[in-house]
């Protein structure tokens, strides 16, 4: 979302940004420089908000000041993510040009989170929230346009809202494929927010199914690894766990990885970290759900099972990264995932006569 705001601002769009925050308020000087006005709203995160009929993610992002501020002008309104669509169907906005940018097919995503987590309390919450989101999604009938970021999501929204849906790839902030900074000992990297059930499941899968069979250094890096991840990592001599690296350290790990091993069990949306590692320049080994709905499977080595994933990691850890490979990668990424082109496409739709 940040890179979409940046690209739109650089294309000449004047933006009023309404954003919700959790915890202490953190004003963003960068956003305030890009936007005409930035309004900050605290999220409602008390337990009682989880007991309402509307999805918790939607209820927690409501504020009395939001509607009058939206009514202060007649600019088109872009709702980012279903959880921010609390006012999509409001009668006072019925005649406004309203657009929706999806992040996932949310009920599918939350059901997948429920399957991935090992906590029964979280499982219950995720599955209940998924069904509330499925019901709430009907508000998108009031959207003049729906912008899908992955092809499988585009197919879903076209089925339910055929006249409104368009495919516009996600923004990511990269413009060129970088040459990796090769360390003395090449390593294979898996990274992600390990506090998220999907990423925890992927990290544990690598540690329990793949690590023993890969004769190379493996680095697992991410925020708040669970006890299960810490114990599984400690059981392997070739595994290094980097617990909650800061932004600079994570960038160094990504730029220095000879092979990026990315596993997911949720073929939802598009994984931004996949785009980021492709621009980082190292080899990329994935399982099929990681590239479902994207235009970049040809840039990855896809392993359909444990044996293939192990073989690909063993193969690419010894393979140099050629200038031709990088040039081809740049050409393919520019073809679809170009922030400036996506911003122009979005701008044209938002402000068409």
Write structural notes for this entry.
The chain has 353 residues and is of the alpha/beta class. It folds into two domains: 2-172 and 338-350, 3-Layer(aba) Sandwich (Rossmann fold); 187-336, Glycogen Phosphorylase B (Rossmann fold, 3-Layer(aba) Sandwich), CATH 3.40.50. Helix content is 41%, strand content 15%. It has 15 helices and twelve strands. The strands form three sheets. The chain has a six-stranded parallel beta sheet, sandwiched between helices. Helix 1 packs across helix 15 and helix 8 (197-210) runs parallel beside helix 9. The longest helix is centred in the middle third of the chain and has 17 residues, at 120-136. The chain starts with a helix and ends with a helix.
**What is the SS-derived class?**
alpha/beta
DSSP strand tally? 12
Q: What is the terminal separation in angstroms?
A: 25 Å
Q: Low-confidence parts lasting 5 or more residues at pLDDT below 50?
A: none
Percent of residues in helices: 40-55%
CATH class of the largest domain: Alpha Beta
**Secondary-structure element pattern, one letter each:** HEHEHHEEHHEHEEHEHEHEHEHEHHH
Shape: globular
Question: What fraction strand?
Answer: 15-25%
Q: Kindly provide the radius of gyration, computed on alpha-carbon positions and rounded to a whole number of angstroms.
A: 21 Å
Widest β-sheet, arrangement of strands: 9-8-7-10-11-12
CATH superfamily of the largest domain: Glycogen Phosphorylase B
- How many H/I helical runs? 15
- What CATH calls the topology of the largest domain is Rossmann fold
